[in-house]
Automatic annotation (TrEMBL), chain A:
Transmembrane segments: 20-40, 46-66, 73-91, 97-119, 126-144, 164-187, 218-240, 246-265, 272-289, 301-321
Localization in the cell: Cell membrane
Protein name: Monosaccharide ABC transporter membrane protein (CUT2 family)
PANTHER family recorded: ABC TRANSPORTER PERMEASE PROTEIN YPHD-RELATED-RELATED, RIBOSE IMPORT PERMEASE PROTEIN RBSC
Pfam families assigned: BPD_transp_2
GO cellular component, one term: plasma membrane
CDD domains (alphabetical): TM_PBP1_transp_AraH_like
Superkingdom of the organism of origin: Bacteria
Major place of residence: membrane
Organism: Mobilisporobacter senegalensis
Membrane topology: Multi-pass membrane protein
Automatic annotation (TrEMBL), chain B:
Nucleotide-binding in keyword set: no
Domain of life of the native organism: Bacteria
UniProt GO molecular function: transmembrane transporter activity
Cell compartment(s), UniProt: Cell membrane
Keywords: Cell inner membrane, Cell membrane, Membrane, Transmembrane, Transmembrane helix, Transport
Gene Ontology CC: one annotated term: plasma membrane
Classification lineage: Bacteria, Bacillati, Bacillota, Clostridia, Lachnospirales
This protein's name: Autoinducer 2 import system permease protein LsrD
Membrane topology recorded in Swiss-Prot or TrEMBL: Multi-pass membrane protein
Length: 331, 336
């Protein structure tokens, strides 16, 4: 009796495990409907498409960990992508690595502005990023004079990056893996990383124990901005153009990936592994729905439903966990 | 949100200085300033028909701002309103055009759809109190517009009967029906918020939800009601918007949630809940509306408009937070 309840508890308490189960069932189901789903080419496509989402999801996890939210990232991507593309248009000689650095710098500056407004201006995150979402988007059109930078205006090296391979693996996937390793280490093993969790779990306790809350907030939003800047360059590299309406609405997908991966919106809860699994789930949804002949017009409705289902299931598991913990304490 | 300092003011003696140092007067000044600007920009602005045209250009959004004020007073947020507008409009269009339902009933279906959408938000939020309103309405925002896209794909649905376009374009004498409807509803919402027990309870929940619950206020019932009402009002917006455009598509009303929230927040209603006055929200509905109209008159592009509204939104929240008021009211600053 006791043993059985322990097993169930262990299963429900590990969200990653249940997500893996769901993923396996989902994949098998899709594979039965369309046998090309689990082919090497399709899996490669799936991962390459999910790369940008997964990089952003790491940053968003940090933001959600401290109980914030950032819906301005789509606009940040468009803005820094456009800014770099304009610089590249007038200076075609800039090497690829420098354009990445430029993108990250511009993105970080955008994120810094977000962080300053939230931490120093004391504006709640949803309002601040709602406003900045529009400001950055407007600024993108403004600096580009409503035009877009086309493929022939971008250097060859940058365009080749997205399709290039290193040790047989697509460059974009390598970038994502590097990002994941760095940030998984950062959040788990560095002092600042632990501070982020501390701020998210209990702001007051964190403040009393001497953590500078404002600084952590600014740092987290700057990281989010920097990762958006990185993605912006991957974006123009992949689509070989910079457009004013790039990445519109991507913030919703990113937040959805985090939520599906078990990151709590009340802060303090979430793991890098969960976020990866959440991104993969969303990637499969995006990739597989056309494969099993579901109209693209249905995608958003299904996505919305999945998000709502995910947050409700998360809440229910959380409640069961809390109840079990309470029970154990009583004994 | 818990760290904002609140001064509970009971009946204080009236002072002229304090009366004029209210946020609403700043808004009135801003409002006058924008009108002077607009009048200088266009010679056709400052007459009754010019002003009415300007008013009609934004008033349909303002119907969402009314219940949004209640939601912000609760200290919550609803970003699914624009999707609710789209979904109720699309369902109305489809029931009239594809299902052959008479337009009168289709209008009712539109209102019912909006109400249902709002109810779904409220239901999820009251059943699962741990969930942040932002994420729930984010989910329903994607879902509602997704359903609208599912139904109508990339098509439009129009050909409504003549009388339907009268809803927006019709008027009594010079005054459009929409303006009359807005005034009636705005007064009703304002009176309920400030002069009834219900309104006081909304403020109480916004100030301290747990204390309100313990003092016997049916917090969940009130929240559910307000979210449902927000859905209904979104459907009202859908009616006017569809009537104006004469057809509907799944991608209408993009960004309306931002305008509605900006209007309310600029009006001095605090995003952390429990504070604000309805008059402010009404004035700022007109400020933002006339500002947009005026910028449109001088051909300011919609991109710059995005920047202006975004900046206004952030500044409106940030300026009171920066505590500039301490220069004026040192005497009354009995914080905490």
């Amino acid at each position: 009796m006791e043993k059985k309840s322990f097993d169930i508890k262990k299963l429900t308490s590990s969200r990653e495990m249940s997500l893996v189960l769901i993923l396996i069932v989902l994949s098998l189901f899709i594979q039965l409907r369309n046998s090309s789903f689990l082919s090497i080419t399709n899996i490669n496509d799936l991962i390459t498409n999910a790369v940008m989402l997964s990089i952003l999801a790491v940053g968003m996890m940090f933001v959600l960990l401290i109980g914030g939210i950032d819906i301005s990232i789509g606009s940040t991507i468009a803005f820094s992508g456009m800014a770099v593309a304009l610089i590249l248009r007038s200076n075609p000689g800039i090497p690829t690595i420098l354009s990445f650095i430029l993108g990250i710098i511009i993105g970080t500056l955008c994120g810094l502005l977000v962080g300053l407004i939230i931490a120093k201006g004391k504006v709640i995150p949803i309002i601040a990023t709602l406003g900045l979402m529009n400001i950055f988007r407007g600024a993108t059109y403004l600096i580009a004079d409503n035009q877009w930078v086309a493929a022939y205006q971008l250097p060859e090296g940058l365009k080749a990056f997205a399709t290039g391979k290193f040790l047989g693996i697509n460059n974009m996937i390598i970038v994502a893996i590097v990002v994941y390793i760095i940030f998984a280490y950062f959040i788990k093993y560095t002092r600042t990383g632990r501070k982020i969790y501390a701020v998210g779990s209990n702001v007051d306790a964190a403040k009393v124990s001497g953590i500078n809350i404002d600084r952590i907030k600014i740092l987290v939003y700057s990281i989010m901005g920097g990762l958006s800047g990185l993605v912006s360059i991957l974006w123009i590299s992949k689509y070989a153009s910079a457009q004013g309406d790039a990445a519109t609405g991507i913030e919703m997908d990113v937040i959805a990936a985090c939520v599906i991966g078990g990151v709590s919106l009340n802060g303090g809860k979430g793991t890098v592994l969960g976020v990866i699994l959440g991104t993969v789930t969303l990637g499969i949804l995006n990739n597989a729905l056309p494969l099993i002949n579901i109209s693209p017009f249905w995608q958003d409705a299904i996505k919305g439903l999945v998000i709502i289902a995910a947050i409700i299931i998360n809440t229910i598991t959380q409640r069961t966990m809390d109840r079990n913990n309470l029970k154990r304490r009583e004994i | 949100m818990g760290k904002t300092k609140r001064v509970i003011t009971t009946a204080q003696e009236f002072s002229w200085k304090k009366f004029f140092l209210q946020w609403e007067w700043l808004l009135v000044l801003l409002f006058i300033g924008i009108n002077i600007m607009n009048a200088n920009l266009s010679p056709y602005y400052m007459n009754s028909s010019g002003l009415l045209t300007a008013t009609s250009s934004f008033l349909e959004k303002a119907f969402i701002a009314l219940p949004m004020a209640y939601i912000l007073v609760l200290g919550e947020i609803d970003i699914s309103v624009a999707s609710t507008v789209a979904l109720s409009s699309v369902i109305m269009g489809v029931s009239y055009n594809n299902l052959g339902i008479p337009m009168e009933i289709a209008v009712l279906i539109c209102l019912a759809t909006g109400t249902l959408c709002g109810f779904i938000n409220g239901f999820i939020l009251t059943k699962f109190k741990e969930l942040a309103p932002m994420i729930v309405t984010l989910g329903t925002m994607i879902l509602f517009r997704g359903i609208a896209t599912m139904i109508l794909k990339d098509q439009a649905s129009g050909n409504f009967p003549m009388w339907f376009s009268e809803i927006y374009w019709g008027s009594i004498g010079n005054i459009p029906y929409m303006l009359i409807a807005f005034i009636v509803l705005a007064v009703a919402f304002g009176v309920v918020l400030h002069k009834t027990t219900f309104g006081r309870r909304v403020f109480a929940i916004g100030s301290n939800g747990i204390a309100s619950r313990y003092s016997g206020i049916q917090v969940d019932k009130i929240r559910l009601l307000i979210y449902t009402l927000t859905g209904t009002m979104s459907a009202v917006t859908a009616l006017f918007l569809t009537s104006r455009m004469g057809s509907t598509r799944p991608n209408i009303a993009q960004g309306y949630e931002m305008d509605a929230i900006a209007m309310v927040v600029l009006g001095g209603i605090s995003t952390s809940g429990g504070k604000g006055r309805f008059v402010g929200a009404i004035i700022s509905i007109f400020i933002i509306g006339f500002l947009r109209y005026g910028l449109g008159l001088v051909n300011v592009s919609s991109q710059v408009m995005l920047i202006v509204i975004g900046t206004l939104l952030i500044c409106a929240v940030m300026i009171p937070n920066l505590n500039l008021g301490r220069f004026f009211k040192k005497k009354t600053a009995k914080t905490a």
